[in-house]
Each structure stands twice: as C-alpha cells, then as structure tokens.
C-alpha cells in the first residue's frame, strides 16, 4: 500500500494471520487512544474489517500509544527517501491527515485519509489533494502554496531521482499548471477550478496526484 502503510504493516504480515475478535478488541483497550469500533470504521471507509485489523496492528506496532505525532511521522517517512529530504513534505502530509488540528494523528484519521487516497473516487482524491495544497486552509490555493508543496516533493525525491535539474524547475512547473488552473485569473485557485483543470488535463491529473506514488 506504499511507503507509510508498508512500514505500519510490515511487522504485522510476519505474524500469525488469524486472531479472534476478542483478541482484536482487547488490543484496542491497551493503548492511550482507543479507536472507534471496527464496524463503524468499516461503514465510514472503503476497507473491510479484516483490512482494518491488519492496518490497526501495523499502526499499533509503530505507534503503541495509539496516536502518531509529527516527529514520528517524519521519521517513518524519511526511511523511504534516503537520498532526499522528506521532512517538509512529511510536514504537509501530516497536517492533511491531522483533520482535528491537534498535532497528532489518530488511527481513525489515518484510515479515513488512506481510504480516500487508495479507494476513493477521482473527485474524492482531488478534494483531498486540494486540501493538501491549501496550506493555510483558507479555501484557495495560491501560487506560493503550490510552489511550496511541489518544491517539497522535489526535495524529497532527491538529486538521484532528478540528476539534471536546471534552473528553478518547481517554479516553472507550477507557473505552467497555475496558468491553466486559474480560469478567472484572480491569482488563486478554487476547489472547482482545481478539480475541473485536473479532469480536463491527464498530465496535470497525474502531476497533482503525485502523492499517490510517494505514499
């Protein structure tokens, strides 16, 4: 399921695959934060109960307290991008998962976001991506915000992935896309402008959903 999910589930897959429901529920009571019941999460996400159990065990292995803070999230993420600096992008990604803005990610927040990214509709994914790029959460994406995210992605991928960068490639990349997105030329991109532009341009869609490859 990608970098972060791979880390959270790696140890789980090496364990015995079957445990009864009582054991699963008992595990959930032994952490500082107890997630919502699996039935409720199954109804709210696109994951089955079995998938949620696997995800929970992996989450608990990495985060025994039942929540993950930003430093831990950055540490997990950095392991998958040794040739670059993933800290800035991980910061933005953490904020997107932290829907309650309390500085930590609960299991429920993690699987809700993951469900959207992996199993959501195109519209769902684009709305989530818009939220990621809307750094100050004012409902608009400015050129500066988009540049910050794209620059963070380039920094994370590292010099070995992009060995021949010349000039300010992130800024050039953003300038071209922003010109297409900002339909009314008011200097900001709304959610509808963002969704429409991505749906009309397959290249832009792939670029704006680059997070799917770095999850």
UniProtKB/TrEMBL annotation:
One of its GO terms (biological process) is regulation of potassium ion transmembrane transport. It is found in: Cell membrane. InterPro entries: EF-hand-dom_pair, EF_Hand_1_Ca_BS, EF_hand_dom, Recoverin. It comes from the Eukaryota. This is Kv channel interacting protein 1 b. Keywords: Calcium, Cell membrane, Ion channel, Ion transport, Membrane, Metal-binding, Potassium, Potassium channel, Potassium transport, Repeat, Transport, Voltage-gated channel. GO terms for molecular function: calcium ion binding; potassium channel activity; potassium channel regulator activity; transmembrane transporter binding. Belongs to the recoverin family. One of its GO terms (cellular component) is voltage-gated potassium channel complex. Residues 85-120, 121-156, 169-204 form the EF-hand domain. Pfam families: EF-hand_7, EF-hand_8.
């Amino acid at each position: 399921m990608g970098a972060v999910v791979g880390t959270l589930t790696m140890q789980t897959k090496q364990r015995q695959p079957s445990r009864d429901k009582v054991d699963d529920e008992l595990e959930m009571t032994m952490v500082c934060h107890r997630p919502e019941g699996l039935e409720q999460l199954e109804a709210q996400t696109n994951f089955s109960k079995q998938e949620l159990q696997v995800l929970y065990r992996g989450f608990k292995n990495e985060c025994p307290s039942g929540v993950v803070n930003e430093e831990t999230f950055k540490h997990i993420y950095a392991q998958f991008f040794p040739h670059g600096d993933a800290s800035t992008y991980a910061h933005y990604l953490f904020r997107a998962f932290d829907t309650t803005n309390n500085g930590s990610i609960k299991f429920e927040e993690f699987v809700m976001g993951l469900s959207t990214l992996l199993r959501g509709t195109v519209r769902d994914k684009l709305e989530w991506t818009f939220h990621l790029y809307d750094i100050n959460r004012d409902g608009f994406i400015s050129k500066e915000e988009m540049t910050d995210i794209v620059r963070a992605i380039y920094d994370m991928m590292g010099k070995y992935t992009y060995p021949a960068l010349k000039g300010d490639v992130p800024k050039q990349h953003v300038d071209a896309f922003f010109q297409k997105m900002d339909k009314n030329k008011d200097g900001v991109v709304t959610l509808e402008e963002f969704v429409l532009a991505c749906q009309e341009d397959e290249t832009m869609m792939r670029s704006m959903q680059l997070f799917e490859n770095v999850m």
